[in-house]
Specification:
By secondary structure, this protein is mostly helical. The protein is built from five helices and no strands. α4 runs antiparallel to α5. It comes from Oceanobacillus bengalensis. This is Hemerythrin-like domain-containing protein.
């Protein structure tokens, strides 16, 4: 069963917005660190960004998949395809986070890491819009 916050559209949207804003701020900080050639701090900040994605967004995604999504499909089987697509978005985000983490551990920080962090924000933004489109009909 999903928690009441996940089913309430406004609070669910607030959870998404807060996490995305934090991720975007971390990306902005990384861009400034690169600009000022502070690569040690950039590496440190990139690891913080990975941790943010793991603990905020991906943990939230796990909770959605275990509770909210199952509940949605049980209550409205027509949403099955939407839920499959939302789960695929989560898997894309998991894949990108894993790639970023491996890259940081093997090669340190590079601009490709920041590009993938930007891609994550865009995937998540689209995902959140789609999820919020589905939730009100719930």
């Amino acid at each position: 069963m999903s928690g009441p916050g996940l089913k309430h559209v406004d609070s669910h949207a607030a959870i998404h917005e807060a996490a995305l804003n934090e991720a975007s701020e971390l990306n902005d900080i990384l861009a400034k660190l690169i600009e000022h050639k502070q690569m040690d701090k950039a590496l440190e900040t990139a690891f913080i960004a990975v941790e943010h994605w793991e603990t905020r967004t991906l943990r939230h995604a796990d909770a959605e998949e275990k509770g909210l999504y199952k509940d949605l499909v049980e209550e409205n089987p027509k949403l099955k395809d939407d839920v499959i697509q939302l789960t695929r978005d989560h898997n894309i985000m998991r894949f990108l986070v894993k790639e970023i983490k491996q890259s940081l551990e093997k090669e340190g920080f590079n601009k490709g890491v920041l590009e993938k962090l930007h891609a994550l924000v865009h995937v998540d933004l689209y995902h959140n819009q789609e999820e919020e489109r589905i939730l009100p009909h719930h």
